[in-house]
Design the sequence.
């Protein structure tokens, strides 16, 4: 859940014909009712749970991608003129939609929110869905409602992170094909690939997901080894990770839960080729001090070749190689 829903507006982007859209402006700002809060919270949770996201920062080409200027003016005004911001962003969205033959319109929801002491602007395009409802006399009638589960285009700008000069502060759903590109262009997002850092974040999420205390994964070592094998194949073939496909292969018993865990990280998106060197942390431990260096496979713990004492914070090595034993004995003498 978000901590606070501050301002919300909904406008329409309607297709008029091939390559043309019109904008229908809604209220300058909706009253923050329980319904509005519920919808924003649900959309935010759904966005966070999606695995196929990309992340980046604003493009240096400010003239071609003016969203950053509008959001910057909004921030400098003390977040006061929300209506002016959303109108300008709608103009930008309509312009970018015209550039893609397969682009579709919909209801465009803008939400100025706070979460974890950070200020965000979230944008989502939602369509209507036809369903049925029972009337008072137990008859059936058509009813149209917002299809929250089916939204395909959404993005979020972490304004606080932007002001703090973070490496990444924009996230958006990638979708399938290049139609979703117009949403990226609308945000003026320059996606950045940091395979080393992304691989480390991926490993952290997988280790937390496989924590025996959570009870999701029966065999942590086998789970991480399988993740390593999949990622190593992507490295070998030079193919970027797709988190949905990755989750289906790695955790076929419940891929949606794993995909949701991967999607929760605010700065991790798929579409990168894992870093080969960083991947080693999935299957081995390594530590170094000025006096010693230690590296061993995770399987050694499982096989009892290495014993870790959690209370004493010590490690015991068993079955030392004969050459090491002889060298240690000579040194002792």
Sequence:
């Amino acid at each position: 859940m978000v901590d606070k829903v501050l301002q919300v507006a909904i406008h329409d982007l309607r297709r008029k014909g091939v390559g043309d859209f019109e904008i229908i402006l809604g209220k300058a700002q909706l009253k923050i009712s329980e319904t509005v809060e519920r919808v924003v919270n649900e959309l935010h949770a759904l966005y966070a749970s999606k695995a196929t996201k990309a992340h980046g920062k604003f493009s240096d080409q400010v003239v071609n991608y003016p969203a950053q200027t509008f959001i910057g003016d909004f921030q400098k005004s003390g977040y006061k003129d929300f209506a002016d911001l959303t109108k300008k962003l709608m103009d930008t969205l309509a312009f970018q939609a015209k550039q893609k033959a397969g682009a579709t319109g919909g209801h465009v929801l803008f939400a100025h929110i706070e979460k974890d002491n950070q200020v965000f602007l979230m944008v989502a395009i939602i369509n209507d869905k036809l369903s049925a409802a029972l009337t008072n006399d137990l008859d059936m009638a058509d009813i149209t409602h917002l299809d929250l589960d089916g939204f395909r285009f959404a993005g979020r700008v972490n304004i606080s992170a932007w002001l703090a000069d973070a490496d990444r502060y924009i996230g958006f759903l990638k979708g399938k094909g290049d139609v979703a590109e117009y949403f990226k262009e609308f945000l003026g997002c320059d996606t950045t690939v940091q395979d080393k850092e992304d691989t480390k974040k991926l490993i952290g999420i997988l280790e937390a997901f496989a924590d025996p205390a959570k009870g999701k994964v029966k065999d942590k070592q086998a789970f991480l080894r399988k993740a390593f094998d999949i990622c190593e194949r992507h490295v070998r073939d030079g193919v970027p990770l797709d988190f949905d496909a990755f989750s289906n292969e790695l955790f076929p018993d419940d891929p949606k839960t794993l995909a949701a865990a991967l999607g929760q990280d605010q700065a991790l998106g798929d579409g990168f080729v894992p870093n080969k060197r960083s991947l080693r942390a999935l299957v081995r431990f390594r530590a170094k001090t000025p006096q010693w260096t230690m590296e061993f496979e995770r399987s050694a713990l499982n096989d009892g070749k290495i014993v870790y004492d959690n209370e004493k914070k010590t490690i015991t090595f068993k079955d030392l190689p004969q050459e090491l034993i002889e060298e240690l004995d000579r040194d002792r003498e």
